[in-house]
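Researcher: If only I could read backbone structure tokens as easily as an amino acid sequence. Walk me, if you will, through where the backbone shape changes along the chain. I have put the entry right below:
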Amino acid sequence: MKLCVKKLLQFFAVFALLFVFNLTVFAQKLSVNDLKVEHLEDPLSIETLKPRFSWKINSTVKNTLQSSYEIRVGASKASVKSGKDLVWKANVAGDQSVLIDYAGTELQSKKRYYWQVRIKDNHGNTSAWSELRIFQTGLVDSDWTAQWITVSGKDTSKVSPLFRKEISLKKEVKSATVYVTAKGLYEAQINGKRISDSYFAPGWTSYNKHLQYQVYDVTAFLKKGSNAIGITLGDGWYKGHIGFAGQHNFYGDTRALLFQLEIEYADGSKETVQTDDQWKSSNGPILGSDIYNGETYDARFEKEGWALAGYKEDQTWTRVRTLSKGKEQLVSMSGPPVKKHEQFKTLKIIKTPKGETVVDFGQNLVGWVQLKARGAAGTKITLSHAEVLDKEGNFYTVNLRSAKQQNNYILKGAGEEVFEPHFTFQGFRYVKVEGYRGELKESDLTAIALYSDMKTTGKFTTSNPLLNQLQHNIQWGQKGNFVDVPTDCPQRDERLGWTGDAQAFAATAAYNMDVAGFFTKWLKDVKLDQLPNGSVPFVVPNVIGDGSSGAAGWADVATIIPWDMYVAYGDKRILGSQYESMVGWVKFMTSASKDNLWNTGFHFGDWLFYRPDDDGRAAVTDKYMIAQTFYAHSTQLLINAARVLGKKDDEVKYTSLLADIKAAYVKEYMTPNGRLISGTQTAYVLALQFDMLPENLRLNAAGRLVQNIRDYGNHLTTGFLGTPYLCHVLSKFGFDNVAYDLLMQETYPSWLYPVKMGATTIWERWDGIKPNGSFQTPDMNSFNHYAYGAIGDWMYKTIAGINAVADQPGYKYIVISPKPGGKITNAAAELETVYGIVKSAWTLENGLLKLDVTIPANTKAKIVLPGNTQEIGSGVYHFESKI
């Protein structure tokens, strides 16, 4: 009997172990991760009170789809974990896992919420509850009790003012949150420590319409007893030089601070510390800081310990002046902040033919240089920044125009001193060092890249090193120009949000990095700066005047980027929020047209196209002809948006308009046999990309495009508007070989010519540096100008074959359709979509195409290979096909 009991116990023990093991394996089959609210991880200031939730699914089982999800949201960790006293609880059948609308009780402003989710899949598995994540709602106007403060007198000095306040906390702090913004830029400290690793806050918006504020959890910075708050202000975009006309004080002439610290104590009581007339202000060591011209920092004027409690204020500290609230609306952050990223050590130190000391960092980047130096008090060290050296090897800054791009550091004479700027950034590869005493060592300078904190989502490599360098240059062009707004260039006296550049590159940008939040934020300003008549400015935020608006291919940013973001991220709300702007732009074009022909107004045309001058063949495309194609394109995108949003009347209305626009184009710009009045590459590319021609004439038109390319020796002649679509059109009509001939072309004009010339970013001009080493016109010759990097879109879609499908956006349905060519023997790309990572990697061996594919859970894909098309679910696959 005892033996039977013993065996029975042993059996149950083994059974229990097997049960636990199976539970572990079961749990490993399915999990949920990468939880986001409004495209952001744990956001502290979402603007909407109806946020959207997203997550990704990990599964070890092929063909996995979500069959249902369970979500719970509460005002405390305990409520969510227990499932009690929730503000929202839902158990929903379906496969939606991206941007799910909140549908619970009304959320409160400036309140933190917790949430988690679990799912079931189509195989009968249930995931564990995800880890707990947070989001915090932003403030409404009535939540602000702080007052705007500025310096005591008129804010005429270039010196960056310091603001401070000491506080005494009588109890233990449970939680503390800072809400802060500025007119200008700010850098905030508590007890001598920066409260954030972000820079250039509050960012650049159309300040006269809305101004962002930031929210920081500062619980760890405060302690019971005495504490100090210290904040420095800079001119930034608000008050500093901006644009290319030498203007400053564009938004205002007074830097100001708004700061609100809300504290909750361990006993449940609360206290608010805020800017008011009791704060003190003084000048600091930043004698001047301008985005274009650089910063001057005199360490002799440092006020040691000024941001610490117990600091003894001298007579320079005076009471601040309060300001009344302006007309601008305060809004929470919807895009990523600017942060430090890669660091570059000195590649080499050069003595130029002119005898100057120049440091080469090996990469054209945007950010600043950290300097270590020793010397006597008053020693001035100047760092000047440039992108290139001239043909003789000398430091070249003529292309900066009026921008100085120069930082000055004045030593206090206290051993090794370390300097870096605060409220400026430079675009550079080379730095000229003047005034450095002693031997300059490579370790004395470090270049630091700064750009918006966008996650890298795409990777692309091939067997061709020049193409790999091109991809590198495209990525670094994006990093350098995505500094809070999508700028044209980051170095000269411009650095503006040119709409044409942004729309041309948006699709490529969404492959390289997660730009959902970045463009969501910027598109708000596109809409706000749009004129009442629907015209869209050349630059956003608009700092060059209302008269600078309405150009074809530039103003179409109002329709192109919202649609691109919808396709890339499945964000239907961005179409809804921008729909009025899309309608406004199409209405403007209609109002400027006669008999449906838009042939009025100023247009840039195919900006910076190749201008051959040796045999009389002009690559000039009629600007009004271009305008008509973009009129059609924006109307088509408006139709698409109306369809997605269920606006059936608009869909019918604009479908009829589109037919009239295309008919007017054919009548005005095409001969009966399909020849266009401008026989350029751009003319045929735009006509074919936007379906302007009768269907029976399109293949012949594509043939004319090919012949033009062959006539130019397999060189492109396109500019900013034709280039993004050139290879796409060739592939669309079966001329992948011609597209590859263009891509692999190494002589000017081509994508690889700058690569061969040593470029590490995309150039503004096809021949920024000519074959003889001389430069193009210095007035417009940026060496970090991302527009021509739009070829990256074709490289991902055609070489690697990773394509989204508009009617199942966000890569819910994926088409993998690689098209090898150009003597490339292998290529690999991956893209982290809102559902997970998509991979496509192929090799060519003896006429056999070998393809490896990864498809994320909760999606499906179509694999298109020569003679082999099939649909698959999630998982890892291998295919082979003769080619």
Q: What stands out?
A: The first strand starts at residue 30 and ends at 37.
